[in-house]
Amino acid sequence: MWRTGHLSGGNAEYVEQLYDQYLNDADEVPEEWREYFDSLPSIAKQNGGDVSHLEIQEYFRKLGKTSRFMPVLSNDVVVNSEHENKQVQVLHLISSYRVRGHQKAALDPLSLMHRESVPDLELGFHDLSPADNSTVFQTGSLHINRDTASLREIVEALENIYCGSIGYEFMHMVDLKQKQWIQKRIEPKLGNPGYDSEVRRHLLERLSAAEGLEKHLDSKYPGTKRFGLEGGESLIPLVDELIQRAGSYGVKEVVIGMAHRGRLNMLVNILGKNPADLFSEFEGRAKYKSSGDVKYHQGFSSNIMTPGGEVHLAMAFNPSHLEIVSPVVEGSVRARQDRRQDPMGHAVLPISLHGDAAFAGQGVVMETFQMSKTRAYGTGGTVHIIVNNQVGFTTSRQDDARSTEYCTDVAKMVQAPIFHVNADDPEAVLFVTQLALDFRYEFKKDVVIDLVCYRRRGHNETDEPSSTQPLMYQKIRKHLTTRGLYAKELISDGVVEESEVDEMNSSYRNALDTGEHVVKSLVKEPNVEMFVDWNPYLGHTWSPNYNTSLRLETLEALARKVTTLPEDLKLHRQVQKIADERKKMANGESLIDWGFAETLAYASILTTGNRVRITGQDVGRGTFSHRHAVLRDQNNENEYVPLSNLVADPKMFGIFDSLLSEEAVLAFEYGYATTTPNALVVWEAQFGDFANSAQVVIDQFITSGEHKWQRLCGLTMLLPHGYEGQGPEHSSARLERFLQMCAEQNIQVCLPTTSKQVFHMLRRQVLCPLRKPLIVMSPKSLLRHKETTATLEELANGSFEVVIGETDDNIKPDQVERVILCSGKVYYDLRAERRKREIDNIAIIRLEQLYPFPLENLEEEMKQYSNVSDVVWCQEEPMNQGAWYSSQHNMRFVMKKLGLDMELRYAGREASAAAAAGYPELHLQQLNAFLEQALGPKED
Q1: pTM for this prediction
Q2: Which fold has domain 806-935?
Q3: Which of 261, 644, 888, 907 is least crowded, fewest Cβ atoms below 10 Å from its Cβ?
Q4: Please, which residues bridge with residue 653 across strands?
């Protein structure tokens, strides 16, 4: 296409139109055509910019007739077509450097990185040769402040820009403006940022601090794990610049997530943790409030002064599950942005630090990237930093570590620009840091800095890396540190004297020895307005009875408001039927079903000034089509959300259908809930079983975060659970796993069985000042069960009942000989079978909350049955699952206290490897069998 032959024949008119458009607005034509037109003799310039279409036609008619071996006369200028063709090839060469220059860049401080040859960066690939080096060509769109240059000068500029210490990957992006923005920022520098002496001194000071802390810890606590930053010290000036520059953009808060590599260095040298406190942790003198966690998992917060004012820094707590902290950070950031009414992410910045192996290997990285531009989870762009040690624990072979050239290739899925940089070139690191942050603020999207460094020690300080990477560590032992290399450079350039370098090192060591804060910009008396006040939620203990009643008139008014819809809203026939039925419920003409009770709970919470946020894969409608909180107009698909129109600020209520992710989404909501105490934050699984995919979030954050890190969290998880013949993947929310993790009143586990119960349970979660995660085994078939309904009066009065005693009028306490204890949907199976058999001497007690276990409430219910000779626990889950193993000791304790000297019997499915039967017939057989166990004659 780039030979002159394409300018004739049927293409001529198309090319003429393109060129005409180019003359009016060059940005409106494709980049390759623009580069081509840039290279042509400009008739527009020669005619003062006023060119008729006739002149354009004549110009291309002459050009199209010319072979590559013939001169052409254009406006009295003789142009050699051989040169013309080479001009086009030069433009191709420039494009090749932009696309593939990073593959030739000197990124590895150790020079061990395997690099394939890049043929399209060779002159011969483009029909050019060294003989053309002196030939002058137009530079086209290359931003080097010259319209023309010799081939030698062009190649030299391209090598300096694209093949130096920085490898730019941005040509995979489809947005032309973003690519042009990057080109205009990087190309005029010609690979030399050109920082003044003051900036270079500051870089050296930051590197001295980074290296100084590691050396101090090594000498003071040799052989102790700390996951040091040696080899990656450039991270400290990188993050320091991010924060200071973010402050100049008006940022008020920065939330940082990172794994353990370099964490202690960040805490001391960036966030301003007192070194004396860190030393106390090393020496075992720290004060422990609970189980705690190792020092390189701890979070921290502080306020730092920047050119734009005070900035609050928060480093998230993180377990050793590496990348799982990334979505937690995003959730915390989104909560802060919502609180500040900052939808574009101007005031709150997320920074995620990653290891190279984890970034390439962990699926949650992809999930988090996929969330980045969605309505529910967007935060205006995250700055991702890869501390690229080029080895993961002991895996360094690229063909073992990943299937891609770079560990960062996953970021291309959201077309994020990727800046690879040699960590031994601090000025290059500083330049890409500034570039990355500016890009984030210009385009509000993710950006990646790949800090290519090395790990001077093993995976930790007790590990010997030479056994698995002998050649790498031979090189590392001979390699001067980043600070040492940069100090030599600055001394050579006359920027500093050797005595100044020594003074930097000694003054930092002295500060550590005296226990001083080493961050000079640390604000000693921070602005308290930047903090969320958690005091109202501290120091509370669990109580089974919390009053969640409200005035009937208030509830009736709310019911009318949420059922009053716009007259022009055209609903689907089935949805309209539900809306009409709810209007009857609001008017007291029908009983309140589960979906409407849940809606009224949210409405009542909103009107008390508390935010409500609900996410999950089908939450707008509800997986089981019961919620319909989001109504869609059938004529135009516009959404109408009744609850958003209930309060003055519609953003107080947010409900979002999530992407098909459990791990990242649940982690995000955990981060949101730990940052917003006065909100009901709900994550609903499509089926409870799918929470399996987020088990690490449940284990490492939700059930243990308070006792490891003193982080309160009021997250609510709605997990559809119930055995209804739908097979092993759509029956169980794995109740047993949650109960197994219950201890120290860490979470609440509830199985509500009526619409009244779900109403009060949700209200209790927000109105009660206790902040504990709430795990709800929510129903499926009960959503439409006629006997789960309630009146408006029942919703207005009372509270959540942790235990519900016998409610059947035919059961008289003095005639009861057997008590069946149960939780969840199985109650209705038991009651239906009891009625069928016309049994009047068996009472059924529901445990609506299994943890904290309601000992006193159960005792109160059971003590009225003075003639009991048999107590049965009945569950629909297999014996090795459900509540049996985790809760039987609590029930036995109550029985013993009441003097019931008998064995607690089990009635339920036999132990099973699978969660449930896959065949409906087998499911029914098992159901009938355990109902017989529970209600039939007691076997001897």
Answers
A1: 0.89
A2: Rossmann fold (3.40.50)
A3: 888
A4: 612
